Amino acid sequence: MSTSAPTPGESSQRETVVLSDGRTAQLVARDGGWSLEVDGVRQSHVGRAGDPPRLAAVRWMLAALGRSGPIRCAHLGGGLLALPRAIAEGRPGSRQLVIELDPVLVELTRNRFSIPEGVEVQVGDARAWLHTAAGHDFDAVVIDVFTGGRIPPAFTSAECFAAAREAISEHGVLVMNSVAGPELDFTRRQLATLRAVFGHVAMIVQGSALKGMRFGNATLIASRAALDHDAIRAELVDDSSRGALVTDVEPLIADAGVVHDRDELWSPEPDLPDLDTPLRLIEEAKQMLRQARGRQPEQGD
Questions:
Q1: CA 89, CA 97: separation in Å to the nearest integer?
Q2: Residue 256 within any structural domain of the chain
Q3: How many other CB atoms are there within 10 angstroms of residue 265's CB atom?
Q4: Which of 22, 63, 67, 122 could form a Cys-Cys staple with 235, CB 3.0–4.6 A?
């Protein structure tokens, strides 16, 4: 994996990227690599070769996919290719296809960070592509699509999941980067929809999000075959995020209804902590301290 990691002292480096729809994103030097932030949400991170992925959501998706040799995987949504990079590095010989809507992100990734070996990137509508992928027998399809910090309706419905099922082999898995908490209505309906389409469903989530204490990521896993719970838990055991695999989803689903395209269901607005205000206050305090030091009289005055 080839990346342009920032040099020491560049932690405050920030670049603005204008996306194809006119929105602006920030490419920020952080954690020994580069982070992509869209609408104030950290969506992707590219680090140094050999380093584990910085984002817990990426590590959870890796855990859901397992480590049993090369795989054929389709990714709906690409970002900076954080997950495809990790798969290419950890499972050499894998063949991966990424469908990314935004050509600006594709060019940024291609020119700035390069495309990993075994990864093909196409610019296009991922949901439209999904309906052409029946019979491809992928080992996995990964859905990681956010717009304005929310999952759009095209990727929350039974029709979408059914198209993914037809693109996956009999023992393959659908892995989805989703959300949970503080209200769990959306998560419950997503689990109900996946269960209706695939039969076998599980979820990786932090306890605080599951209990409604805060908003966070959730990795949803679905398959027509029984999931290897022990293998997934083994991948999570030493993870610092303390993400837990939830296999008994029936009490959580309860009477939640299946989602269809006609429902046009978005994921909820991200209820994230306001970090800008405390950071601004800290910077103002530092500035005041520097100014005060500059006004101190020299000794002997």
A1: 15
A2: yes
A3: 20
A4: 63
Q: What is the pTM of this model?
A: 0.86
Task: Write the CATH number for 59.
Answer: 3.40.50.150
Report whether 156 contacts 141 (CB < 8 A): no
Task: State percent of the chain over pLDDT 90.
Answer: 76
pLDDT tens-digit profile of 31-47? 889 999 987 788 899 99
Q: 201: exposed, middle or buried (C-beta count within 10 Å: 0-12, 13-18, 19+)?
A: buried
253 lies in some domain = yes
Strand duo 216-223 + 200-205: pairing: antiparallel
What total of structural domains would you count in the chain? Answer: 1
Residue 133 placed within a domain: yes
Name the nearest CA neighbour of 42 among 27, 32, 53, 52. Answer: 27
Q: Are 95 and 121 in contact (CB under 8 A)?
A: no
Its domain, for residue 202, covers 47-282
The helix/strand/coil state of 174 is strand
Specify if 81 maps to a domain.
yes
